[in-house]
Amino acid sequence: MRPGDKNAPGADPTAGKETEMKESYILLAVDGSAHADRAADFAVDLARLTEGRILLLYCHRSFPKVIGEPYLQTMITRILEDAQKRLAPYCDRLHQARVQFEERIAEGSAGKAIVEIAEIEKCDLIVMGTRGRSDLQGLLLGSVTHRVLQTAPCPVMVVRHSQA
Questions:
Q1: Number of domains in the chain
Q2: 146-163 pLDDT, tens per residue?
Q3: Domain annotation covers residue 48
Q4: Is residue 10, in this structure, part of any structural domain at all?
Q5: Is residue 55 part of a domain?
Q6: At residue 26, does pLDDT exceed 50?
Q7: Which three-class secondary structure string do you get for 105-157?
Q8: Which residue(s) pair with 125 in the sheet?
Q9: What confidence score (pLDDT) does residue 140 get?
Q10: 35 by DSSP, 3-state: which?
C-alpha cells in the first residue's frame, strides 16, 4: 500500500469526500391524544436537527356507505371538520417551531394509511405515539402502532407517553 491510499490502515474513509446531511422527511401521525402530543415534540426536535420537514397526518374513520343524501354529505362535512379541529393544534405547534410541514387527512384504517402514505411520499421516518401496551395486547386489540411497526417501508420511532 502506498501512502495516501484510501484503503491504507488508519486512512480517513471520508477524506476527499464532502459529507452532507440529507434533509429528512418525517411522517408524524397524530390523533389528538397526549401520546401524539409527545410524539410531535420529538418530531419537531428531529426536524430541527436534520433541517427536515414534516408530513402531518391524521386518519379519520371511513365515511358511512349506507347513508343516503343529504345525510351522507352532512356526515362527511362533520367528519372533515372534526379532522381539521384535531390537526389545528399541531399546525400551530409546527408554525411556532418554524418547522416546514404539510398536512394530510386520510380515510380508513390508520395503520394501513400511515404505511401507504409513508411509502407513496418516500418518507425517511415515521414518528408516532403509543399507549405502551404489550405486544400481546397490541396484537389482540389490533394496535395501529403494531401494524405500522410490522409493515412500514422506513424506520419507525415510537414515543411512549410517560405516566408522570
A1: 1
A2: 889 998 999 999 988 665
A3: yes
A4: no
A5: yes
A6: yes
A7: EEECCHHHHHHHHHHHCCCCEEEEEECCCCHHHHHHHCCHHHHHHHHCCCCEE
A8: 26
A9: 45
A10: helix
Instruction: Classify 8 as helix, strand or coil.
Output: coil
Range of the domain at 136: 28-159
pLDDT (tens digit, 9 = 90+) per residue, 36-89?
Answer: 999 999 999 999 999 999 999 999 887 777 777 777 788 888 888 999 999 999
- Whichever domain contains 143, its CATH number is 3.40.50.620
The SS3 of residue 102 is strand
Which three cell numbers mark 115? Answer: 404505511
Q: Starting from the edge strand earliest in sequence, which strands make up the sheet with 25-30, in order?
A: 100-107, 53-60, 25-30, 125-130, 156-160
59 within a domain of the structure (yes/no): yes
Question: What residues contact residue 104 under an 8 Å CB cut-off, 6+ apart?
Answer: 55, 56, 57, 58, 117
